[in-house]
Batch of 2 targets.
Target 1
Amino acid sequence: MAAARARVTHLLRLLQSAACQCPTHSHTYSQAPGLSPSGKTTDYAFEMAVSNIRYGAGVTKEVGMDLQNMGAKNVCLMTDKNLSQLPPVRAVVDSLVKHGITFRVYDAVRVEPTDPSFMDAIEFARKGAFDAYVAVGGGSAMDTCKAANLYACSPRAELLDYVNAPIGKGRPVTVPLRPLVAVPTTSGTGSETTGVAIFDYESLKVKTGIASRAIKPTLGLVDPLHTLHLPGQVVANSGFDVLCHALESYTALPYHMRSPCPANPIARPAYQGSNPISDIWAVHALRIVAKYLKRAVRNPDDLEARSHMHLASAFAGIGFGNAGVHLCHGMSYPISGLVKTYKAKDYNVDHPLVPHGLSVVLTSPAVFTFTAQMFPERHLEAAEILGADTRTTKLRDAGPVLADTLRGLLLDLKVDDGLAAIGYSRADIPALVKGTLPQERVTKLAPRPQSEEDLSALFEASMKLY
Ligand SMILES: NC(=O)c1ccc[n+]([C@@H]2O[C@H](COP(=O)([O-])OP(=O)(O)OC[C@H]3O[C@@H](n4cnc5c(N)ncnc54)[C@H](O)[C@@H]3O)[C@@H](O)[C@H]2O)c1
Ligand SMILES: [Fe+2]
């Protein structure tokens, strides 16, 4: 059986490498259904959950009308302290006032939320009896607002009920939620498009989250004008998040190789593996990152570059929201959770913080070197999109070539030199590995399975990059 499967996989690879090399047919998108080498225990279907996005410079001014159209009478606006003083929140408040919407502001969102910070927002939402929500901010504000909406609509639920197993109970969401309009102000998480809400579970010192299509925002208002206020470091780190969403979802295990096959469609995970539709979003996002990320970081007034990155974040979000991410994200959760004293510049916070995008990208050269043994064509295609000259590269070198391309990008943008530069040493590796093990929801989507020794080696290889 295993031998037969290996043979089919081998044949499929041969087929792929023998494919037409013209621009129309030379892509390496996921195999269409029917070519699956999987046995009966793996999935046979994938589902594309659509995200509602409205994009335009200044589109935030429409939020008051949207809430009016939804019949909202008592709205909760969630944001963080820093943003509450900045133009994006002002634009939302102006629109709500102009259209006569009654609202209350919750501005205590924690940058990189935790279980206590989620609970605080949930209490506010439960007491407020709101009939609609507006989240203004980056992933921290949008994720907090999704959780507040979910638990306010499920008043007896405890936090862990909906949190991903094995940390939580992973209960499916069956209660109807209130409308939520998300106004992203960073160009990174794509949270305006996803059914995911991430927080740091303090007692375990790892990040985990809630993943359900039911918590996806009703509407994302993607307004590039908000990016003009973003500090360079936030543009860089949130851009690395886009980069890794695209790379990981494109190289994830294909949906038809993921198991188990759910007995009921409600149990089919949103993170279901790479699939032909997510691939398109991921590759497109990668092309935008390649073209605009450096410009967006270096020049705050480059509205063209920042606008494209803002949209890239949504593109990648739609891709990974329906495919998933894998090792960079799985390993990033303990990197953020175990932070000691590192405080990222430009984040305006009073607690140690490794920003999400940084925690994800620092392991990317090691991760893609490791995963390229599977689907090397995709790794090579990604390297080429990111600027590598791959005309004479052999497939077996796909991993190192992609890793070098990523290192070059990070060096160019003066990113910290690996995990050692943000306060970790070899002595921390066992704890980092221990924190990665419960992240099965994403680590199982890596194209290659990993042992604890593999994870140790990946952390070790990520201590220094240059
Ligand atoms: N839900 C998802 O699908 C998803 C995906 C990836 C990451 N995440 C989570 O999102 C969080 C990170 O979110 P993020 O990277 O968007 O950053 P963030 O929300 O944590 O914000 C980072 C900093 O930028 C500031 N800021 C945001 N927008 C600004 C603007 N326009 N002008 C000036 N300052 C601004 C904030 O006040 C904050 O200080 C993490 O908790 C991460 O795990 C969620
Ligand atoms: Fe992310």
Target 2
Amino acid sequence: MPTNKGAFKIFTLAGIGVYVHWSWFLVAFYSIQYRTHQYSSVGWNAAEYFALFLIVLIHEFGHQLACRQVGGQTHDIVLWPLGGVAYVTPPQRPGAQLWSIAAGPLVNVALVPVLAALWSASYHLGWSDSHHDLYNLLQNIWVINLVLLIFNMMPVYPLDGGQILRSLLWFMVGRAGSLFAASIIGFIGVAGLIGVAIWLQSIWLGVMAAFILMNCWGGLRQAQALARIAKLPRREGFACPSCRTAPPLGELWRCGKCGKQFDTFLTHGVCPHCGVQYGTTRCLDCGAAHPISEWMTSPPVNN
Ligand SMILES: [Zn+2]
Ligand SMILES: [Zn+2]
Ligand SMILES: [Zn+2]
């Protein structure tokens, strides 16, 4: 789980904190100073970079608000040089995941005609001659939004396109199988991306490919763990209040104090090794934590 370590809080909107990682400022400074553009002064470069920042930000808010709508947990938005990271925990259902992910790119889709209208209006007002910098800025913002949208919709996990593909596959092959398939497709995509990065000699694409590769590897590992859990026999009389799945049988919960594993449903949240009492029990299927009493589907037997 990524954190907002090393990031500065800019503001809070609708209960969502917006952070910018320090490396973002570094890359912003570099890009504004050295990116060659058709502007007459560096101030216009800065304005273009700020527009990029805004587009990424509202894209991330798209994810957050959609996730909240389907009853998921929203956290913070952290902007990195590679793009935004929205810390969202949508419910572990394919439909909820699909909407939470798709809402981000849909923001960019909605921006396409809006930005095109602005650019077109500036053309008809004759700004390409009278306000050359402003005209170029509007044109570039339209292009930036479209490039972001196309790049992000590549079916390569964990890009939004890859995650949308994963949610769609989830309907057909289940939670573990869909993550497995999306990760494998992601590896193929990464191979292609590395090829393009070498061809274009783009450090940015190379770093992006490394980031995607790490995430695909993590996705593959998580898919294996999910498949293992899915195969385990289940305990009767209990179900997760969030996802309604019965907990698996076995010593699968690790004590945070002594580090030993135990079956929390046998001991009602007490570690049999060191005696620590846990107030809530985490669902291995969806990650939600609830007190054991809320997990019970049949009244406890008194003996
Ligand atoms: Zn996104
Ligand atoms: Zn659950
Ligand atoms: Zn313990």
